[in-house]
Amino acid sequence: MLTAILIMALGAVVLGAALGFASIKFKTEGNPLVEKIEAILPQTQCGQCGFAGCKPYAEAIAAGEADINRCPPGGQEGVAKLADLLGREITPLDAEEKPKQLAIIDEHTCIGCTLCIQACPVDAIVGAAKQMHTVVSALCTGCELCVKPCPVECIRMEVIGESLETWKWRYPIFEIKRAS
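The chain above was modelled as a monomer; its predicted structure follows.
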């Protein structure tokens, strides 16, 4: 019995040492510029920029493969922040800037098909198959990706009005920097 425990302990030590060596040997570091660009992007993961999400778009910007003006949810304010970070000229937004929106599901029309849940990139829609679904408003980014797959058209986008919770300074000069 003691021999089996010692063999198991020795095996655990050897495997732990191998994993420790591998983590040092194969360590990869992300591009800090990509992380800074991604922090500026709105994290809607909507694909309106032509990329699968905010991280691939940030990587393309850092590599010089994409313009900084392709993010409608980030708006002109996002373009200005990216231009400031990268030392580039501020260019007009490549698409129409949209106000902040929230998906609303009509509970009486929803058939519980789960197509909206599958389309949501941030898991803001909850529900079960053949049951009514609902949107977690705190998680919804307003990307509109859930609207198109709905077979009964029970999802609508509603513009979020300005309140103390949703209002923000329009000009970067007034922006308050938060300690990270």
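The chain is about 35% helix and 10% strand.
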